[in-house]
Structure formats: structure tokens, C-alpha cells
Amino acid sequence: MSKYPKINYIGNKAKLVDWIIENLPLKHGKVLDIFSGGSSVSYALKENNYEVVSNDVLYSNYVISKAIIENNSVKLSNDVLEKNIPTDLVEKKYEKIKFLSNRLYFDDEVKELARLVCISETLEDYEKYMFLALLRRAMIRKLPYSRMNVPWNQIVKLRDEDYSYMKYKRKRAYHNLSFKQHILDNINNYNDAIFDNGKKNLSYNMDSFEMLKKIKEPVDIIYMDPPYPKTMNKYGEFYGLFDKVFEEEKAYIDFSANDKFMENMEKLIQKCIDKTKYIVISLNNKTSPSSDELKQMLEKYGKVSVKYKDFQYKVTGKENKNTTVEILIIVRLKNEIN
What we know:
Elements: H1 17-22, E1 30-33, H2 40-47, E2 51-55, H3 59-70, H4 87-97, H5 107-122, H6 125-141, H7 152-159, H8 161-168, H9 179-191, E3 202-204, H10 208-214, E4 219-224, H11 235-245, H12 261-272, E5 276-284, H13 291-298, E6 302-311, E7 314-315, E8 318-319, E9 324-333, H14 334-337
Parallel strand pairs: 1-2, 1-4, 2-3, 4-5
Antiparallel strand pairs: 5-9, 6-9, 7-8
């Protein structure tokens, strides 16, 4: 049976997807997940037999979506790790990515990573994206706090297993496993995630506004979980060095900017009007702007209903004792009402 794989994505909705799906205004149809992130919502939509259009501007997120949303059948063999890559190619790749040395990883690890990046360049189609999704997981898993903006001195300190045990009562030995070992540890998990729901699911790597321009035929629902201001929202900093390694960095509208969020959000809603029947927006009681502020703006464009759920997040393995209220705002657009 298929199962959403281990991704490591801050803000992941994996434990909330059943509630989100349960509260969607339609039980079938085509859904655009326009800020797909770690693809947990897209994956749940696929499991529930929706036709899924998954989009994210970060390449590190796009490779996940291509691997487990658009891909319906291709799995990866362990043999791919044994490909013979000429030494000179690995050395050239190392020269391109050595900016990671003593920034995210030790130099010998960057040399190992160079070889794996070279392997990815020999692969095609979904086999390539499966490999890249696994490599992304390995790169994130080796880092304390699972993000790429931790200062190097902190990385070194937290990768010291004795220090980690003394400080946190956990050695976190997985930080010191090789990239290859991380891939081997997760390959079955990712292969088991692949299934065919009988729909033509698609994945895109675009800014949200550009994605809406691309949509020619309307979808039934547009689902949004944008990076809200004043939250753990620095996704470009968290994962963007992956994009840099593969030379896939893209410019995008930054929704996390506090002074521009409502302006950008309203512009995005306006672009959705002729593209869908419903807009569904995820947020919680700790985001800014508040659900009331968003609701007031959204009421200009359709009939709004709101759903609530108490939830406790876990951060770095520890459960936050403060309960968060998860919120879904559902907008039935005026063009659908009329």
C-alpha cells in the first residue's frame, strides 16, 4: 500500500491532511496545490482520487512532487548508486559545489555529494526525480534542525555526537551518515510511495502568479498554504542551496514579507477568479495576518466559511505544549454562486 514518504519539510501538513481533505467543498475533481511545499497535501489529494496539479517555485520541492505526485509507476533501483562516474567529471562538479564546504558539510562529504550529483545527471525522467528527491532528503537529514541556514559553527557543534548526547540526551548519529547511506535507508520508503490513481497528475516549478497564467482550463479547487509572515517561513533559506547546487534558482514573489502579504494575497485571489470554483486556504491562529483579516478581504470575492481544528506541532522531535488552532478558509467564488 502506498504511503507518504519521509520528507523533512518545515510546515508540513502531513498530520493534518485527513482533516483538510474531509473539509474540501468537493469530493472529486481537479485541484491546484499552488504552494505545494513538501507535497503532503498533493499526495493526500492523489490518494483520494482527485486529479492533482502541484506547483512550487523551489526546485527542492518540485523534485518531490515530480517523484511522488506526477510519477505513477517508476521506482528506483539501488544499482543506480553504483554507476561508474569518471573522476574528472566528479572533480569538475566538486569545483562547482565546493561553496558548500565548511558551510553545510565537511569537504570530504561535498566530494561525495559531487559524485551523486553527477549520477543524477545520467538519469532521465522520473528515475531522475526519484533520485533527486532521495538526495534532497539525504542533504537535509545530515543537517541539524533539517534546514540549510544553520551557521557552520552550530552545525559542527551539533554533529558532535558526544556534545549532542550531553546537551539533548540524543547522539543524532544520522547527521554523520554518508549521503549514500541515507539514500539506501530511504529508497524503499520512496519506492513504496509510488502509485497510480488513474488520473493525469502534473507538477510544475513556477512562481504562483506565473502558474495561474499557465492554467488555461479552470480547475475545481485552488488550495493555498502560502509562507505567512512571522512564522517558520524562510523556505528559500531552508532549502534554497539545493536549488543552487542544481542551478535551478528562480525569482518569485515573496509572500513572507509582512508589509506586502495582504497586497500580494489579494492580487493572487483576483488572478484565481476565472480559474476555479473554490479557493481553500490553510493557516492557523498564530499566523499574521489573522484569519479574520483574511476573511474580511475574501468576502469581497465570494461566500466564505471557516473550519477550525486544535493541533499540536512538533519541532525538532519535541512536541509544542501550546495548542495551535488550525484553520481552513473556504471561498465559494461569486462566479460559481452566479
